[in-house]
Amino acid sequence: MSVRVEGVVQGVGFRPFVHRLAKRLMLCGHVGNHADGVFAEVEGTRDAVRAFLRALREEAPPLAVVESVRTTELPPTGANGFTIAASPQGAEANTLISADSATCDACLRELADPADRRYRYPFINCTHCGPRFTIVRGVPYDRPFTTMAGFAMCADCAAEYADPADRRFHAQPVCCTACGPRLRLDLLGSDPRFGQDLLAEAVRRLRAGQILAIKGLGGFHLATDATDPTAAATLRARKHREDKPFAVMVADLAAVRELCEVGDGDAELLTSRRRPIVLLPKRPGTPIADAVAPGNRRLGVMLPYTPLHHLLLADVGRPIVLTSGNVSDEPIVYRDEDVADRLGGIADAVLTHDRPIHIRTDDSVARTFRGTVQLQRRSRGYVPEAAAGLDVDVGRHVLACGAELKNTFCLAKGRRMFLSHHIGDLENVETLRSFTEGIEHFRALFDIDPEVVAYDLHPEYLSTKYALDLPDVVLVGVQHHHAHIASCLVDNREPGPVLGVAFDGTGYGTDGTIWGGEFLVADLATFQRLGHLEPVPMPGGAAAITQPWRMAAAYLDLAYGDDPPELDVARRNAGRWRAVRSMARSGVNAPTTSSAGRLFDAVAALLGVRDTINYEGQAAIELEQHADPAERGVYAAAIADGDPLRVSGEDLVRACVDDLCAGVPSTVVAARFHNGVSDVIARVCARLRQRTGVNVVALSGGVFQNLLLLGVTVDALQQRGFRVLVHSRVPTNDGGISLGQAVIAAHS
Predict the structure, then answer these.
(1) How far apart are CA 507 and CA 593, in angstroms?
(2) All structural domains of the chain
(3) Beta-carbon count within 10 A of 31 CB
(4) Where would a tag sit more exposed on the chain, N or C end, judged by fewer CB atoms within 10 A?
């Protein structure tokens, strides 16, 4: 019988598993990799063949995902034995490549065993763990198509590779101290050092408060002692990252519990093979330096996921900062030849190795919401696995180019949609290069030649300009907030229609204005705008995004005109307040926006939380942190009838100001504002249900990264009888936009 298995079945020990299974059932034949996945021919008794087919699904290796098993009857050949065949070339690539996987328990035991030949070897791996996506150059997944091609196996590794009973049987990155990659310590200006003492020297430098660039699976990290205030502040200054939190790596789950509150879902996520950064509430009195996550009640924590990380953390004996190796706003450095130029002014030394990284990949970021995992950044450990969605054939090959901020792209064919790793903000040449290189790699890896290209309507996005420059393709412009809602539908395997609440900072509307506080009725093909926040001017345009006090001035002027109350925000910005208010009134350099993000910015400035920001979304993040979660008071906002409905953000601002002037603590005001936003969302959806008959609400957009807002909004909607969809496997922020674009383009 001929058998074809599709799914994540290459680089996960599937061929050796099939080999052992066939031997156990006394079947003859062969197995091999193919561009479609894994192929096999088996010959034996009918009962043995049935048992073989059943076990392919039920007993598959831990990293395998079996999507389909197709069989064809063949005449018996009388073959003897069972072998692993060579991989054929030239067929269309339809296989799924495994994501990089954290070091397995079996390898960790060997790493710590002085009697083992791989004792303390920083590149130990097997068929159940180690690098995959970041070292793959092409398919099928065989060693010559990876960055391990330059490392010839020694006799011992070759014997393991050829032994069906060994855990490293046909493990493509198999290596050891005799034949594999080796560490190097660069002192940036001095000759590189090799040898056994490198880890000890790196540990000594970390414990002394120095900053090290360390090569990981998908690029370089910058590391330093997370308990040392001077070291953390120095890293922040050198990296030009004023306030945005750093991630922290600790040795084990017990160490995480000493720093943070860890729920059951959090523990499972932290210890999973994907090993993302997990956002957790900090415990009081944590030894982590304030400069690591200034003004933030949460900490981004991860566990070691490479053997090198395990060795370093065990020897350092304390938490370390482990943040992307870049200067702020640039993509992560992943080539050794770029380190001196791009990280030389930040790192004191570089701990690297000679296994090339083929595709740069940042760490993933996740959290749990009421027991469910929510990805904030989908990257290492998850990519390039297909985004599970509706069982719909997208037809022609599709490329979706994503948005400007938190960019990802998406390539789709058949029933599979490949959402890319995190690219970053497309605001410089280096990030644009990462975007274009990533698209070419995915095209080659999955044999996709785009016929349809989807893009955001914003004419100035670099992703849009890239799409419009492509020849001989069908171009499909997709409205930003429709894409948000469509990505939520795919994430929840729902076809729609739904009432979509898309709240974010910026999105180009079909009328040429800036949207961001939208109520839609939408499915995977079409949408209609049924409501939105009342538009307000953005005095200074883009300057109002980085200076939230400008939005406070605009909202106060609309709410009070020439007779506003005396507020600290006006006094703090007195030198420019009158000019900015005039700008808002005249409409010169003051485009109007319905953005929910700008409303949160205005309230943050009013409450003295943040007048200017140093990273995207900072004011809203700190406003959430400032709010008293126990407060149940609610501010009311009027809903103006019409088509579309219009929600008064001015009412919410006026309520905040009235309470501030009455001496109500700002923490209470912040909480009542959050509750007021959730209340008006629920009331608008109730009105739209009467109009449309739709009883399902999808929440999407970067504003819903706010856990306080998300929680009270879900509760308010459910209390009114709605079924509520939120994001899980796809980011609610702009990292999910490309997936929504792809499915909309496919259905257009």
Answers:
(1) 9
(2) 2-97 (3.30.70.100), 183-353 (3.90.870.10), 386-492+733-747 (3.30.420.360), 531-725 (3.30.420.40)
(3) 24
(4) C
